[in-house]
């Protein structure tokens, strides 16, 4: 029955020492890293619940069945291409999803710089860790700024607005009115992108703290940059969540 | 700190455990270490030792005592509404000093009645049977039984308790609001919970309920990641996953369930807060209230139920699985037999954990969901009977021809099995959509879940406290009082919930404040009175336990190191383990935790710390080879 790795052998008076036999880190990860993984698993369920809510409510709404071209109405779900088609500085130009695609690219780039910071940490290269953390912070902050612009645009709306049944015209959106479609579309937009944005914001705060600690040499004295790695895990997770938000909110 | 001390080899420790009498010098050495350990910590301020402690044993005691306080409050609330149900015409003016304006013209205020059932459910499910049960025993037993100095992160563990404490304060505070605490039932279904104007209890009380639960979920998360990582990374040498006591397997899987299901309740609570306070309509649509149409359109209250029960169903296993683990341990120890089907027990725990995530909609058969979907959930629900059945048969087989010691803990463990069978059988009835549609929202459901997860989990909790009290407080609880407590509680529980099945089948609806106006139900006046008398007596019987508990902390008979002649690691620590648990090196583990009455062995138990080289006479052939 000695089917385990060679290290799993034991004698009559010595305990077994295989990967899962105790006194060991079976996933080759410290408890802190494991905790981060389990936290992220938990957080994934939070986001999954929100996206499920989005799908559930979206499919409770009527589908536009014509005749003619699609037009915005509070009765059916809007087409994202027509909602998110503005770009800063390019007033009146129809650029479907261009800005949000740029935001997504920025966030994905921040993941790349995060990986480089972690890699520099493995090399114990303090200067490089600082450099790449700074880039990550910059990209993260840019993403948040872009989101702020997008929210502002979404809230202000277009000149045309939406003419309601009673003849009044609604411009933009908030939690109670929405020119782009059903109010719940705006509710969900603010809620889900807001919840994600809060995560990015916390991530940026953590990265800034991490940068300060790196600059002070805290991690260097400790002999490892595992903290950068743990916050990196969080950062990649937040990026990954954005990919899902982007897919469900903007693409499908 | 102990590097310069003579190292107690695990083998010496273990020999102390092999015979009934521990080897004297080992015990002496332990005391020596223990005393020195105490001296080290004498200058520790009481605030850090007892209040903001990072020692898992102190945190466990904090969870236990907070849970007990909550249980007394939760039980008192149930006694109050049982008064109303048992004697609907009686004058309750004598309660005015306690309840103030909630007694209205000699009657319990109807809105307050709803608040009572809501808070009773919330308190018992979350604060007592989640925090009080797994908070206590996961904290206490995981490091001790896997052989760790403490939890992975003592600091986060401390935060876990204090978030629970904060959550408790908010919930307790809400009891004293003028408009009363949350009143929409412990499941807080919208629209009742989403519209502050719906009833007094939907106002500030509901907001505080949600805030309290959000804090509670943070506490669960901090505790849960700690429990899981401790079990994965901090097991002592030799403690493979297949040598873990079943308690640890149960706590481990419970923590995973918590990590994966509570965040969904968090999402639901957050969405509900937005509906309540910021005018969104995630769960609201087409509502008239007080003759006025609300503008909320497009949301769905059924969506809330899906989100709620995605937590809510695993939650009942979060409540029951720690109890199952402790009962397995106590049954084997006190039957002096190995647990029957150790691997099947682990397998069934894993099976229950997996299934618990895919059965939630069986709470929603009457929401108008697609009947086909209903039949899928019914099918999955009934499959849970298989792992549950495996567990019950294994417990019974463990008792079979055992050399049973009827300690108080053992009685509660056997009581648990009895209640789990009785309550589980009605679960098979309710799991059928066709039958559930008839029984839904009757007392049959109330009786079912009070037996199978309420009372059972309480029995598991008592079983755990009686069994591990010596390790927690260094003293023994009084056995005679334990017997009195057991028989009063055991009889009480059946006297309360058996008749409740009967009125439930007859259609008696739950959550009704005034039922005397219905001809169909007025014939149950005597039955209700009977249930109320039994419930109130059973509640007061718990004070035998409370007295025994606090009396024994100070005056109980002093415990020995291993009073139950048990095999697991926690009994190799000093009588009152200090911070760090073992004074010397942490012992290594060589064998599974259930070597009781092993043929060929002189002693009727062999601790996990005894290597096979010392038990040649009882080794099985494959153990002799030690290649496993």
TrEMBL record, chain A:
InterPro entries: Cyt_c/ubiquinol_Oxase_su3, Cyt_c_oxidase-like_su3, Cyt_c_oxidase_su3-like_sf, Cyt_c_oxidase_su3_a-hlx. Pfam families: COX3. PROSITE patterns: COX3. The chain crosses the membrane at residues 34-57, 97-120, 132-149, 188-212, 233-251. Its main location: membrane. It is a multi-pass membrane protein. Residues 13-252 form the Heme-copper oxidase subunit III family profile domain. Keywords: Cell membrane, Membrane, Transmembrane, Transmembrane helix. SUPFAM superfamilies: Cytochrome c oxidase subunit III-like (SSF81452). It is found in: Cell membrane. Belongs to the cytochrome c oxidase subunit 3 family. This is Cytochrome c oxidase subunit 3. It comes from Hymenobacter aranciens.
Automatic annotation (TrEMBL), chain B:
InterPro entries: Cyt_c_oxase-like_su1_dom, Cyt_c_oxase-like_su1_sf, Cyt_C_Oxase_1, Cyt_c_Oxase_su1_BS. Residues 1-20 are annotated as: Disordered. The keyword Transmembrane helix applies. The chain crosses the membrane at residues 63-85, 112-142, 154-176, 209-234, 246-274, 307-328, 340-360, 372-396, 408-431, 443-469, 481-502, 530-551. It holds the Pfam family COX1. It is found in: Membrane. Its main location: membrane. Residues 42-590 form the Cytochrome oxidase subunit I profile domain. Keywords: Electron transport, Heme, Iron, Membrane, Metal-binding, Respiratory chain, Transmembrane, Transmembrane helix, Transport. The keyword Signal does not apply. It is a multi-pass membrane protein. Belongs to the heme-copper respiratory oxidase family. PANTHER family: CYTOCHROME C OXIDASE SUBUNIT 1 (PTHR10422:SF18). This is Cbb3-type cytochrome c oxidase subunit I. It comes from Hymenobacter aranciens.
């Amino acid at each position: 029955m000695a089917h385990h790795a060679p290290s799993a052998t034991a004698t009559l008076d010595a305990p077994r020492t295989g990967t899962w036999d105790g006194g060991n880190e079976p996933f080759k990860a410290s408890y802190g890293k494991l905790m981060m993984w389990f936290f992220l698993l938990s957080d994934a369920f939070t986001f999954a619940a929100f996206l499920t809510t989005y799908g559930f409510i979206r499919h409770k709404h009527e589908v536009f069945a014509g005749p003619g071209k699609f037009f915005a109405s509070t009765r059916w779900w809007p087409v994202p291409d027509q909602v998110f088609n503005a770009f800063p500085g390019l007033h009146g130009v129809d650029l479907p999803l261009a800005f949000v695609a740029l935001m997504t690219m920025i966030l994905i780039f921040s993941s790349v710089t995060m990986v480089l910071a972690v890699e520099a940490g493995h090399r114990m290269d303090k200067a490089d860790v600082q450099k790449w953390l700074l880039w990550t912070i910059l990209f993260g902050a840019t993403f948040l700024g872009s989101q702020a612009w997008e929210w502002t645009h979404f809230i202000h709306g277009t000149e045309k607005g939406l003419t309601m049944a009673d003849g009044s015209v609604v411009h933009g959106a908030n939690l109670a009115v929405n020119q782009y479609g059903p109010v719940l579309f705006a509710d969900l937009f603010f809620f889900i992108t807001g919840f994600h944005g809060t995560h990015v914001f916390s991530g940026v705060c953590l990265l800034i703290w991490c940068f300060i600690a790196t600059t002070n040499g805290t991690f260097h004295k400790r002999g490892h940059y595992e903290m950068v790695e743990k916050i990196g895990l969080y950062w990649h997770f937040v990026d990954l969540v954005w990919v899902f938000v982007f897919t469900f909110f903007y693409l499908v | 700190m102990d590097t310069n001390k003579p190292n107690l080899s695990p083998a010496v420790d273990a020999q102390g455990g092999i015979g009934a009498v521990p080897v004297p010098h080992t015990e002496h050495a332990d005391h020596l270490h223990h005393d020195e350990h105490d001296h080290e910590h004498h200058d520790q301020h009481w605030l850090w030792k007892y209040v903001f402690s990072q020692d898992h044993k102190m945190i466990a005691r904090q969870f236990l005592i907070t849970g007990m306080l909550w249980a007394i409050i939760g039980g008192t609330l149930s006694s109050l509404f049982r008064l109303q149900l048992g004697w609907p015409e009686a004058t309750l003016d004598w309660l005015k000093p306690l309840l103030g304006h909630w007694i209205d013209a000699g009657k319990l205020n109807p809105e307050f009645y709803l608040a009572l059932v809501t808070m009773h459910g919330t308190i018992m499910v979350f604060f007592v049977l989640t925090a009080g049960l797994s908070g206590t025993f996961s904290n206490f037993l995981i490091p001790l039984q896997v052989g760790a100095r403490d939890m992975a992160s003592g600091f986060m563990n401390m935060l876990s308790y204090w978030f629970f404490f904060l959550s408790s304060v908010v919930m307790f505070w809400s009891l004293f609001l003028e408009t009363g605490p949350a009143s929409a039932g412990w499941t807080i279904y919208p629209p009742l919970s989403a519209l502050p104007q719906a009833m007094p209890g939907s106002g500030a009380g509901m907001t505080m309920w949600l805030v309290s639960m959000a804090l509670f979920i943070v506490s669960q998360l901090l505790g849960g990641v700690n429990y899981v990582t401790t079990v994965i990374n901090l097991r002592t040498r030799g403690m493979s996953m297949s040598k873990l006591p079943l308690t640890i397997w149960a706590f481990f899987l419970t923590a995973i369930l918590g990590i994966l299901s509570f965040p969904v309740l968090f999402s639901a609570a957050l969405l509900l807060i937005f509906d309540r306070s910021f005018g969104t309509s995630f769960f609201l649509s087409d509502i008239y209230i007080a003759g006025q149409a609300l503008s909320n359109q497009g949301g769905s209250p059924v969506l809330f139920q899906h989100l709620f029960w995605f937590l809510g169903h695993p939650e009942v296993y979060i409540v029951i699985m720690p109890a199952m683990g402790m009962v397995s341990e106590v049954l084997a120890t006190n039957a002096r037999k190995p647990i029957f089907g150790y691997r099947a027990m682990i397998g069934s725990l894993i099976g229950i954990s997996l299934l618990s995530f895919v059965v939630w909609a069986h709470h929603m058969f009457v929401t108008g969901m697609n009947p086909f979907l209903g039949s899928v959930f019914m099918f999955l629900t009934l499959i849970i009977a298989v792992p549950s059945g495996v567990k019950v048969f294994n417990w019974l087989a463990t008792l079979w021809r055992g050399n049973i010691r009827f300690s108080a803990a053992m009685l509660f463990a056997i009581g648990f099995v009895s209640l789990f069978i009785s309550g589980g059988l009605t679960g098979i009835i309710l799991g059928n959509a066709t039958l559930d549609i008839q029984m839904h929202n009757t007392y049959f459901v109330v009786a079912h879940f009070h037996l199978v997860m309420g009372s059972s989990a309480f029995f598991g909790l008592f079983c755990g406290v009686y069994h591990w009290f010596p390790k927690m407080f260094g003293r023994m609880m009084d056995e005679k009082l334990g017997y009195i407590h057991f028989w009063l509680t055991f009889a009480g529980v059946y006297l309360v919930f058996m008749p409740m099945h009967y009125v439930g089948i007859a259609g008696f609806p739950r959550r009704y404040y005034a039922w005397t106006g219905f001809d169909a139900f007025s014939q149950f006046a005597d039955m209700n009175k009977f249930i109320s008398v039994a419930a109130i007596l059973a509640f007061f019987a718990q004070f035998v336990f409370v007295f025994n508990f606090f009396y024994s902390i100070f005056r109980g008979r002093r415990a020995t190191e291993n009073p139950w002649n048990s095999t697991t690691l926690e009994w190799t620590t000093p009588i009152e383990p200090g911070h760090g648990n073992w004074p010397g090196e942490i012992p290594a583990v060589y064998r599974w935790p259930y070597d009781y009455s092993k043929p060929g062995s002189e002693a009727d138990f062999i601790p996990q710390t005894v290597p096979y080289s010392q038990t040649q006479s009882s080794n099985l052939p494959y153990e002799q080879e030690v290649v496993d």
